[in-house]
Each structure stands twice: as structure tokens, then as C-alpha cells.
Design brief:
- This protein is α+β, with helices and mostly antiparallel strands.
- The chain has a single domain, classed as Chemotaxis protein chec, CATH 3.40.1550.10.
- Strands 1, 2, 3, 4, 5, 6, 7 and 8 form an eight-stranded antiparallel beta sheet that branches.
């Protein structure tokens, strides 16, 4: 399926990628809700196929400080997946998990960093699990790698790694609402071109 051209997707193919984004984000919201033991609502995610250079603008600009949790994907789907949140969103989720909503510290403690890594792991794991179930394709994810850095620096990792095989990533922008507090999270799925083809053909396209 390497003849697939991401610049020439038809409406049906695009709709399927969008639906994959919706289902994955819904599963991730359920997992997050169970983890922090609090009801979380999810706004309908925005799903788009973007060039790498456009991604940092979506998450607040290249110099915006973010938490990025990165996985490499192997098996029938190869590539990378990243989950990103800005610092206020990360602080809110960690506070929710640890039951300390008054903590306003800018820096995270070792225990909080571990909790943050686990939050990202569970959210991304739920997302990948739904993708695997939907497509009936086995997906192996690496141990998560977490970084706190400027968005441009974090996004340069997949851009360098995959820029040679394509410049498009599937961005799923999700807004979680927890106790009237809105938290934005960004899933960035970067399969190889062959993997995009495998996903679409598994769904009959």
C-alpha cells in the first residue's frame, strides 16, 4: 500500500481517519476518568492531517512548554505516537490523581513525574488498544519516553525520524472537562505510509 498519497486522500478515507481519532480519544477519556476516579466529559475531538511544521502552532507555539510522552510503534503498524499537554493541563491532571487540587508548584516532584508518565501511558495505551480492536491489527508500543520541553524541541524528534518518509501526522485535539475545568490534550499519530495503507485496507478502503 506504499502508493498511498496522504495529499490525495478521498473524503471516505479522511472520514475513517477522523473516526479512528474520535473512537481512540473516547476510549482514552474513559481510561482517564477511571484512573482519577472522577467523571470526565469529552468534547468532540478535532482531527486533522497536518504537516509536522504546523503542529507546534496548534499546541500554543514552538516555545510553549509542554509535557510530551512518546511511544514508538512496531508490528503491523509502525511509526510513533505522542501524547502532549501544556503545563497547566498536566498540573491539573496530576493534582486530580494525587488528590491535592491546591498544589500550584511549577516544578513536578519525582512522584508527580511518575504519575504524569503513568497518566500518559494509560491514555495512549487506551487509544492504541481501540485502534487495534477497530482495525484488527496487532500494535506493539514501546515503553513510554517522557520529556518536558518546548513544543518545537519535542516535535522535532518525530519530524527528524519520519521526515524522510513523509511530512504528515494525524493530530487529534481533545478537550477533557473535569469539574468544569477544561484540559486540552493532543494525540499525534505518525504511522509510516505503509501503515496508513494497512489501517485503511483493514477497514475495507
Amino acid at each position: 500500500m506504499s502508493h498511498l498519497d496522504l495529499n490525495q486522500l478521498d473524503n471516505m478515507q479522511y472520514d475513517v481517519l477522523r473516526e479512528i481519532g474520535n473512537i481512540g480519544a473516547g476510549n482514552a477519556t474513559t481510561a482517564l476518568s477511571q484512573m482519577i476516579n472522577s467523571k470526565i466529559d469529552m468534547k468532540v475531538p478535532k482531527v486533522d492531517l497536518l504537516e509536522f511544521k504546523e503542529l507546534s502552532d496548534i499546541v500554543g507555539g514552538a516555545e510553549n512548554l509542554v509535557v510530551g510522552i512518546l511511544f514508538t510503534l512496531e508490528g503491523q503498524i509502525e511509526g510513533m505516537m505522542m501524547f502532549m499537554m501544556d503545563m497547566p493541563a498536566s498540573r491539573h491532571l496530576v493534582n486530580s490523581l494525587m488528590g491535592d487540587m491546591n498544589n500550584t508548584a511549577v516544578e513536578f516532584s519525582e512522584m508527580e513525574l511518575s504519575a504524569l508518565n503513568e497518566i500518559g501511558n494509560i491514555i495512549a495505551g487506551a487509544y492504541l488498544s481501540s485502534l487495534s480492536t477497530l482495525t484488527n491489527i496487532l500494535i506493539h508500543a514501546s515503553i513510554p519516553y517522557m520529556a518536558i520541553d518546548m513544543a518545537g524541541a519535542i516535535l522535532s524528534v518525530p519530524a527528524i525520524e519520519f521526515g524522510k518518509i513523509g511530512d504528515k501526522a494525524l493530530l487529534i485535539e481533545t478537550e477533557f472537562v473535569d469539574d468544569d475545568k477544561a484540559v486540552n490534550g493532543y494525540f499525534i499519530l505518525i504511522p509510516t505510509i505503509d501503515s496508513y495503507g494497512a489501517i485503511l485496507s483493514s477497514l475495507g478502503l
